């Protein structure tokens, strides 16, 4: 007898019903691809020879077509601390593949943008669309049809979503995501944030700021705040796309290498030529997507997944919307507090029980689907265990019975908040999302006159000029997907945090995004429809003026103004930016769908 929560069951059934036509079209495609391209025997001799010409000792195995050949899609680069460890992975993975009579080839690389580097300047306007660029690059890599399985190397914000979207279009193949792990903890995130606010107030200089930042981001591995990258890792566990517990094991350790090896062995076994065929299309279904949403809500994950998850789901023919998130949020309690939702980081979270604890609690409370197909042979329950090395052999120990730190991890029976970390707000200014898990409850409702800006730079200038030292709702518009690529406006966190610490009631309202690491200041983001006109009709934010009273009430789900916008002329959007490659992304902007549908031109134009 299932103990599944009636709310989770109801939302899942609604998604299944809504997705029926698109999901069946997707599964028909997968069926066709499985028949036509699930191994390389259909390739001509010339095609094949091109595919293994440089494969050295692996040539005979690849040439015969009998051996399992794995495609490695890698987001390696030296600049992202999270992806830098991937440099050595392919050579190791080829050895691991040969251990089970398989081979592996790097099928292709995908770009990986670091939002931490581009935060606050023009490059950030490529961020959202870099996700679709990654999906396109994944498809280019896998389109050679040389492969019996996919090993996907990517961690950060848009990289996992892009890899998922691209790989799902080859859903007739099995897939495993191979993470590299979080960097060892540096100075605390709170210390980092304090120095930033002192810098914003002119009380410390660049030298002190750089020293503080470098003590936080100090070596290889994923940044240790619970932002979009680490929310990706959580979701891969909740969807069963990892080897269980791979998310937060540190890089460059024997356990990390054992997990990578297990991933290679496992995806070979899951191929059609293996003994346990599990195509990715059958793992990523409506229930797996609901598990990802539930994990996001229970852990206070990144608001960016209110945009990425709808796009990822669409690639599998699954249609979700923000009502699904909101309804699940009311039933899924917040059971973790990892910075910015608390003070500890993901290393502390992992040490306190980590994902094994989260999965155990969610399955035990019937808040996650236990009956999804996963990379792990035993299904979702295998993810309620933590990987360890016992005499150099990979093994798993069950999640601890008690939380290792109840300031970070709580049971469902005694949560930090009775509901999830993310809410829908809507009204006469549109629909947006707000991350309540990172904001003190007394700040969930802010009603104040607004100041309206068309760029985040203008906000910084107004702050420096002392114009914002009051109760104020800062509106930053023309930041949507079609306006300028929907950048994160995370650089606004320190100045708005200073205003809040001075005792003012402050909130942000924008059709742009925030970082998964943003917190503290209430922010209604992803406001849809965006301010930039679509089919000649601007979004409501285009009609706001300085002084209009705006109300943001996360508890009631309200985003509205008392001003009468009906007779106003809309503001004109600033011209689209040139430089930093932004002009090359005009085609993405022109055709982008709304944030609630994933903000993707690629999916819109493809009719997915
Ligand atoms: O969504 C996210 O998690 C962010 O995009 C994150 O990847 C980004 O890099 C932040 O900017 C880091 O935080 P700081 O800018 O505060 O270091
Ligand atoms: S977590 Fe963010 S800041 Fe850190 S490497 Fe990844 S993209 Fe860059």
Automatic annotation (TrEMBL):
InterPro entries attached here? 6-phosphgluc_deHydtase (IPR004786), Dihydro-acid_dehy_C (IPR042096), DiOHA_6PGluconate_deHydtase_CS (IPR020558), ILV_EDD_C (IPR056740), ILV_EDD_N (IPR000581), IlvD/EDD_N (IPR037237)
Q: Tell me which cofactor or cofactors this protein depends on.
A: [4Fe-4S] cluster
**Superkingdom per UniProt:** Bacteria
Keyword list (alphabetical) reads: 4Fe-4S, Carbohydrate metabolism, Gluconate utilization, Iron, Iron-sulfur, Lyase, Metal-binding
Enzyme class, UniProt record, top EC level: lyase
Protein name, entry field:
Phosphogluconate dehydratase
Specify the Dihydroxy-acid/6-phosphogluconate dehydratase N-terminal domain's residue ranges: 70-381
**One GO cellular component term:** cytosol
> A Pfam family name for this chain?
ILVD_EDD_N
Q: What's this protein's family per the entry?
A: Belongs to the IlvD/Edd family.
Q: What is its EC number?
A: 4.2.1.12
Some GO term, biological process aspect, for this entry: which one? D-gluconate metabolic process
Q: Which positions in this protein are listed as binding [4Fe-4S] cluster?
A: 156, 223
GO MF annotations in UniProt: 4 iron, 4 sulfur cluster binding; metal ion binding; phosphogluconate dehydratase activity
Q: Please explain the role this protein plays, according to its UniProt record.
A: Catalyzes the dehydration of 6-phospho-D-gluconate to 2-dehydro-3-deoxy-6-phospho-D-gluconate.
All copies of domain Dihydroxy-acid/6-phosphogluconate dehydratase C-terminal, residue ranges: 408-598
**Cofactor binding annotation:** Binds 1 [4Fe-4S] cluster.
Can you state which reaction this protein catalyses? 6-phospho-D-gluconate = 2-dehydro-3-deoxy-6-phospho-D-gluconate + H2O
Tell me which species this is from: Novosphingobium malaysiense
The pathway entry for this protein reads as: Carbohydrate metabolism; Entner-Doudoroff pathway
């Amino acid at each position: 007898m299932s103990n599944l929560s009636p709310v989770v069951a109801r939302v899942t059934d609604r998604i299944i019903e809504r997705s029926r036509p698109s999901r069946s079209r997707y599964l028909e495609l997968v069926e066709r691809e499985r028949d036509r391209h699930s191994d390389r025997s259909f390739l001509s001799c010339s095609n094949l020879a091109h595919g293994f010409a440089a494969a050295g000792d692996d040539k005979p195995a690849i040439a015969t077509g009998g051996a399992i050949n794995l495609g490695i899609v890698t987001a390696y680069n030296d600049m992202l601390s999270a992806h830098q460890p991937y440099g050595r992975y392919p050579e190791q993975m080829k050895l691991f593949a040969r251990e089970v009579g398989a081979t592996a080839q790097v099928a292709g690389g995908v770009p990986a943008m670091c939002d931490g580097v581009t935060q606050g300047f023009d490059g950030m306007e490529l961020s959202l669309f870099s996700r679709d660029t990654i999906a396109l690059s994944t498809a280019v890599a896998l389109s050679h049809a040389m492969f019996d399985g996919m090993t996907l190397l990517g961690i950060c914000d848009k990289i996992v979503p892009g890899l998922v979207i691209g790989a799902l279009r080859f859903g007739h193949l099995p897939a495993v995501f191979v993470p590299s792990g979080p960097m060892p903890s540096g100075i605390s995130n709170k210390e980092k944030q304090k120095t930033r606010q002192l810098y914003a107030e002119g009380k410390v200089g660049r030298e002190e700021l750089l020293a503080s930042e470098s003590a936080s981001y100090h070596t290889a591995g994923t940044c240790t705040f619970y932002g979009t990258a680490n929310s990706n890792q959580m979701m891969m566990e909740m969807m069963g796309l990892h080897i269980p517990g791979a998310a937060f094991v540190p890089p460059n350790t024997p356990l990390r290498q054992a997990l990578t090896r297990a991933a290679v062995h496992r995806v070979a076994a899951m191929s059609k030529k293996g003994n346990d065929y599990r195509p990715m299309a059958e793992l990523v279904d409506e229930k797996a997507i609901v598990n990802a949403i539930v994990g996001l809500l229970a852990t206070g994950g990144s608001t960016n997944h209110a945009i990425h998850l709808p796009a990822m789901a669409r690639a599998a023919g699954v249609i979700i919307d923000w009502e699904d998130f909101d309804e699940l949020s009311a039933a899924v309690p917040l059971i973790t507090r990892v910075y910015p939702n608390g003070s500890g980081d993901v290393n502390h979270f992992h040490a306190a029980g980590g994902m094994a604890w989260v999965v155990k609690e969610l399955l035990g409370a019937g808040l996650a689907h236990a009956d999804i197909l996963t990379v792990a042979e035993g299904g979702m329950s295998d993810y309620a265990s933590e990987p360890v090395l016992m005499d150099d052999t990979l093994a798993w120990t069950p999640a601890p019975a008690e939380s290792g730190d109840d300031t970070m991890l709580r049971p469902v029976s005694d949560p930090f908040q009775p509901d999830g970390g993310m809410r829908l707000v809507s009204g006469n200014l549109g629909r947006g999302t707000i991350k309540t898990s990172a904001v003190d409850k007394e700040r969930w409702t802010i009603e104040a006159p607004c100041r309206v800006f068309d760029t985040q730079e203008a906000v910084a200038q107004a702050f420096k000029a002392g114009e914002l030292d009051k109760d104020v709702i800062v509106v930053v518009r023309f930041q949507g997907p079609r306006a300028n690529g929907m950048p994160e406006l995370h650089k606004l966190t320190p100045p708005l945090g200073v205003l809040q610490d001075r005792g003012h009631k402050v909130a942000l309202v924008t059709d742009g995004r925030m970082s998964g690491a943003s917190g503290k200041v209430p922010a209604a983001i992803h406001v849809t429809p965006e301010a930039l006109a679509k089919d000649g009709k601007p979004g409501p934010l285009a009609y706001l003026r300085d002084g209009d009273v705006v109300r943001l009430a996360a508890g009631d789900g309200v985003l509205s103004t008392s001003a009468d916008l009906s007779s106003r002329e809309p503001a004109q959007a600033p011209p689209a930016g040139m430089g930093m490659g932004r002009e090359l992304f005009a085609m993405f902007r022109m055709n982008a769908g709304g944030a609630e549908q994933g903000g993707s031109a690629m999916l819109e134009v493809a009719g997915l």
